């Protein structure tokens, strides 16, 4: 069975850049790929292995400065909780961003002590420290996209909403994390109201799984028709696009996107037989933010993100005693 996600749209598809045409970042290339890149010969390279005479420094420095190669990457900010076991939360976000070709930055909302079998303890970040993290990032390297994950308390949500508004954040991908795969509750009941009231209206897209979409829409989701109706309801209620993910369904892993202009797009994916799904939601949302930062439209970003996630599941990494993490680096092995 092939597991490449397929996209079906109910309106004519939009144009966007092809990712396959994009070269991987140089440090991920193999030797023959990187050997084909143009090289700059700096003054320092010419002197390799030989001690430099003092008299040669001044011309050498000017020569080197004139020829320094500069490069840049779109930067993406993850605002999420730390997962000590590395498979979900901030750790999954940063690994995903690196693998998807953007520069990942972090504002940590909570420290969790967890592994693949459960969550032992949670310490929320003090709101002023969270505000400082967001400020320091935006003041220096303004992100092109922002991914928001675990936000467990109202005061944390308030500060995120206020700071992101202040900094005119764009391309906000919000994964409304409620319950961990291991079963632990990761948000308080009163924080759900703050999340939907303050952060949903700012989001470009929200990405609930089926149980989360049921809570957010007060409906039962039994089939794909219900998933699509829930996605529409979220768009109507909160004015942002909504991707309802089918990972918790019983058949294929199909996700549905409803956009504010009424467009509905299904992203079909065959269910992969892999019990290690810790961090799938974190990974998908970070990949969507990464591809938005790289210039994709929302449907294209989701298509590429799902392809990345599918590959990570197909790699069949098997770590830990519970539902384990995925191989975020699968593309480069
Ligand atoms: N077994 C699977 N095979 C293929 N795709 C899957 C599988 N499980 C989940 N997915 C995909 O993973 C993505 C995340 O969906 P899921 O419903 O698991 O989110 P989630 O529950 O928020 O994740 P998390 O485990 O981080 O809480 C979706 O694109 C979904 O279709
Ligand atoms: C810090 C943090 N953020 C998010 C999740 C959800 O991921 P999952 O549902 O796969 O456990 C998690 N377990 N921990």
UniProtKB/TrEMBL annotation:
It is an enzyme of class 2 (transferase). GO terms for molecular function: ATP binding; hydroxymethylpyrimidine kinase activity; phosphomethylpyrimidine kinase activity. GO terms for biological process: thiamine biosynthetic process; thiamine diphosphate biosynthetic process. Its EC number is 2.7.1.49, 2.7.4.7. The keyword Nucleotide-binding applies. Coiled coil: none annotated. Keywords: ATP-binding, Kinase, Nucleotide-binding, Thiamine biosynthesis, Transferase. One of its GO terms (cellular component) is cytosol. InterPro entries: HMP/HMP-P_kinase_dom (IPR004399), PM/HMP-P_kinase-1 (IPR013749), Ribokinase-like (IPR029056). Pathway: Cofactor biosynthesis; thiamine diphosphate biosynthesis; 4-amino-2-methyl-5-diphosphomethylpyrimidine from 5-amino-1-(5-phospho-D-ribosyl)imidazole: step 3/3. Residues 1-32 are annotated as: Disordered. It catalyses: 4-amino-5-hydroxymethyl-2-methylpyrimidine + ATP = 4-amino-2-methyl-5-(phosphooxymethyl)pyrimidine + ADP + H(+); 4-amino-2-methyl-5-(phosphooxymethyl)pyrimidine + ATP = 4-amino-2-methyl-5-(diphosphooxymethyl)pyrimidine + ADP. The keyword NADP does not apply. It holds the Pfam family Phos_pyr_kin. Residues 83-327 form the Pyridoxamine kinase/Phosphomethylpyrimidine kinase domain. PANTHER family: HYDROXYMETHYLPYRIMIDINE_PHOSPHOMETHYLPYRIMIDINE KINASE THI20-RELATED, PHOSPHOMETHYLPYRIMIDINE KINASE. Catalyzes the phosphorylation of hydroxymethylpyrimidine phosphate (HMP-P) to HMP-PP, and of HMP to HMP-P. This is Bifunctional hydroxymethylpyrimidine kinase/phosphomethylpyrimidine kinase.
């Amino acid at each position: 069975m092939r597991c490449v996600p397929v996209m079906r749209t109910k309106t004519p598809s939009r144009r966007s850049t092809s990712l396959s045409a994009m070269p991987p970042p140089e440090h991920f290339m193999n030797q023959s790929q990187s050997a084909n890149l143009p090289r700059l010969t700096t003054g320092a390279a010419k002197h390799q292995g030989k001690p430099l005479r003092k008299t040669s420094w001044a011309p050498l420095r000017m020569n080197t400065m004139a020829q320094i190669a500069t490069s840049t990457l779109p930067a993406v900010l993850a605002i999420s909780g730390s997962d000590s076991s590395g498979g979900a939360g901030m750790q999954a976000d940063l690994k995903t961003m690196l693998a998807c070709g953007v520069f990942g930055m972090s504002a940590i909302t909570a420290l969790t002590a967890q592994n693949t079998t459960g969550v032992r303890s949670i310490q929320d970040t003090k709101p002023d420290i969270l505000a400082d993290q967001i400020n320091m990032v935006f003041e220096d390297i303004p992100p092109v996209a922002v991914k928001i994950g675990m936000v467990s308390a109202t005061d944390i949500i308030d500060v995120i909403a206020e700071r992101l508004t202040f900094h005119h954040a764009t391309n906000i991908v919000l994964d409304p994390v409620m319950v961990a795969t291991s079963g632990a509750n990761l948000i308080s009941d009163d924080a759900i109201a703050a999340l939907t009231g303050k952060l949903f209206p700012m989001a470009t897209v929200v990405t609930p799984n089926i149980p989360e979409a049921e809570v957010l829409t007060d409906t039962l989701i039994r089939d794909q028709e219900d998933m699509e109706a829930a996605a529409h309801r979220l768009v109507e209620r909160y004015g942002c696009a909504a991707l309802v993910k089918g990972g918790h369904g019983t058949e294929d892993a199909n996700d549905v996107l409803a956009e504010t202009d009424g467009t509905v797009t299904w992203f079909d994916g065959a269910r992969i037989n892999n019990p290690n799904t810790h961090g799938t939601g974190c990974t998908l949302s970070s990949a969507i933010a990464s591809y938005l930062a790289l210039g994709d439209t929302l449907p294209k970003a989701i298509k590429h993100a799902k392809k990345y996630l599918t590959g990570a599941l197909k790699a069949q990494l098997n770590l830990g005693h519970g539902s384990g993490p995925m191989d975020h680096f699968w593309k480069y092995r």
